[in-house]
Q: What sequence folds into this?
C-alpha cells in the first residue's frame, strides 16, 4: 500500500528531491510546508493535491491564500511556524519528513514524534540543538528517527545487521572537504559568497553549502551521529573522501569495516528513509565503476577550518554547547551570505561562542531557544 507523506521544507533542495522519490514510488502527499517560495509551492500543490499546506513567511502565506482563492479542492492553509508544527502533529501521514533548515525544524520534529509519527530526519539541527529532548521523545512514544543525511543514512544502512551492530566500536564519517579543501587560512581570507557556493560534488541549498565549505556541516553531523548511534565523540572520526562516493563507514570490534557507496544523489538516502526496511528501484542512477578512476582519503584540517574543532568542543562540553555553536553558525552564515563578514569570521565567531561558557547540564525546550537567541546576539555583538 502506498505511504502517505507529510513533507516539511518542500521547496528546498531536499524537499524537491523528496518529491522526486514520492513521485517515483507513487506515494500520497498528505501535507506540504514551505517558507516563502510561493511559485514552486503552487506547482507542487497542483501536482500532488495535499490536503493541508503551511507557509512560514506571513507575506508569502498571504500571497498563496490570494492565489488559491476560489480554486476548487484547494488545500487548507496554515500560517507561520505554528502552522508547520500543527502539520507535524496531524493524524493521517505514515511518516513526516522534516527538511526544514536550521533550528526552526526542532519544534516540528518534537511535535511529530510526540504525536506518534516516525520522522525521516533531514533537519540535523533538531538533534544538534535538542538532542536529549528528541531522543527521549522518540523513546517515550515508540516512534522512529530515520536518518536522511547521506552520511547518517550510510551508517544506518551499515548497521542493519542487528547482531553485528552490538559490537560497533567506531564511526568513520566521510566529508567531501568542500570547495576549499587543502587551502590554508591566508588563502581563505578573501573568499567570497560566490566562491563558497561552488561545491564540487553536491547540489544543495545555500546555507548547507556554506556549512560544507567551513566544515561546520561535518561538525553538526558528528554531533548528530552521537545522538543517533550512541557512540561518544572520540569514537567518531571525520575522513575526507573527495569523490563523495563512500558516504560513511562503521568499524566493529574485530576491526572489520563496512562502507556504503553510491553516487552523490540525495534521493538514495531519502528513499531509504521512506521505504525502510525495504528497498525498491528508485530514480537515482547506479554507480558506474568503469568510470570511477580512484577513491581517495585525507585528514580533515581542523586548524584551518575551526568550525569542526568548535563542534567537537561543543559536544564535549555537552548540555547546550552544541545549541550555542549552531545558533552562532546560523547567524554568521546569514551575515556572510549578506556580505557583512568574511569567510574566516564564521569559524572565529562559532568558536568564540563555544569558548564563552561551560554550557553543561540538563535543559528544557525553552532553554534551547534562549541559548539560540543568546548565541545569535553574541555574534552580532562581536562582528
A:
Amino acid at each position: 500500500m502506498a505511504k502517505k507523506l507529510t513533507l516539511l521544507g518542500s521547496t528546498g533542495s531536499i524537499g524537491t528531491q523528496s518529491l522526486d522519490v514520492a513521485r517515483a514510488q507513487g506515494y500520497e502527499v498528505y501535507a506540504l510546508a514551505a517558507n516563502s517560495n510561493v511559485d514552486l509551492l503552487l506547482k507542487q500543490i497542483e501536482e500532488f493535491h495535499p490536503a493541508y499546506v503551511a507557509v512560514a513567511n506571513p507575506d508569502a502565506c498571504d500571497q498563496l491564500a490570494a492565489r488559491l482563492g476560489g480554486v476548487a479542492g484547494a488545500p487548507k492553509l496554515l500560517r507561520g511556524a505554528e502552522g508547520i508544527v500543527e502539520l507535524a502533529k496531524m493524524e493521517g501521514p505514515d511518516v513526516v519528513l522534516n527538511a526544514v533548515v536550521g533550528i526552526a525544524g526542532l519544534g516540528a520534529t518534537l511535535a511529530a514524534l510526540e504525536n506518534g509519527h516516525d520522522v525521516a530526519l533531514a533537519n540535523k539541527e533538531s538533534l544538534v540543538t535538542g538532542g536529549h529532548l528528541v531522543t527521549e521523545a522518540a523513546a517515550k512514544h515508540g516512534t522512529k528517527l530515520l536518518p536522511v543525511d547521506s552520511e547518517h543514512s550510510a551508517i544506518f544502512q551499515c548497521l542493519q545487521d542487528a547482531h553485528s551492530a552490538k559490537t560497533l566500536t567506531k564511526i568513520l564519517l566521510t566529508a567531501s572537504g568542500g570547495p576549499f579543501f587543502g587551502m590554508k587560512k591566508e588563502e581563505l581570507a578573501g573568499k567570497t559568497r560566490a566562491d563558497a557556493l561552488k561545491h564540487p560534488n553536491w547540489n544543495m541549498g545555500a546555507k548547507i553549502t556554506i556549512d560544507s565549505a567551513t566544515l561546520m556541516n561535518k561538525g553538526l553531523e558528528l554531533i548528530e551521529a552521537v545522538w543517533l548511534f550512541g557512540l561518544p565523540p572520540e569514537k567518531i572520526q571525520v575522513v575526507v573522501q573527495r569523490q563523495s562516493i563512500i558516504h560513511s563507514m562503521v568499524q566493529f570490534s574485530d576491526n572489520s569495516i563496512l562502507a556504503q557507496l553510491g553516487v552523490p544523489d540525495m534521493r538514495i538516502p531519502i528513499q531509504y528513509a521512506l521505504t525502510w526496511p525495504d528497498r525498491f528501484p528508485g530514480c537515482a542512477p547506479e554507480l558506474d565503476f568503469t568510470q570511477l578512476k580512484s577513491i581517495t582519503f585525507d585528514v580533515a584540517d581542523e586548524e584551518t577550518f575551526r568550525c569542526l574543532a568548535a563542534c567537537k568542543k561543543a559536544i564535549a562540553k555537552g548540555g547546550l554547547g552544541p545549541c550555542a555553536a549552531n545558533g552562532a553558525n546560523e547567524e554568521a552564515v546569514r551575515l556572510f551570505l549578506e556580505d557583512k563578514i568574511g569567510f574566516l569570521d564564521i569559524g572565529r565567531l562559532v568558536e568564540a561562542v563555544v569558548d564563552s561558557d561551560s554550557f553543561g547540564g540538563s535543559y528544557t525546550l525553552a532553554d534551547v531557544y534562549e541559548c539560540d537567541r543568546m548565541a545569535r546576539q553574541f555574534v552580532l555583538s562581536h562582528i
User: Anything to note?
Assistant: The CA atoms of residues 17 and 267 lie 6 Å apart. The chain has a mean pLDDT of 96. Residues 153-381 form a domain with the Rna Polymerase Sigma Factor; Chain: A fold (CATH 1.10.1740.10). The chain has two domains: 4-147, 153-381.
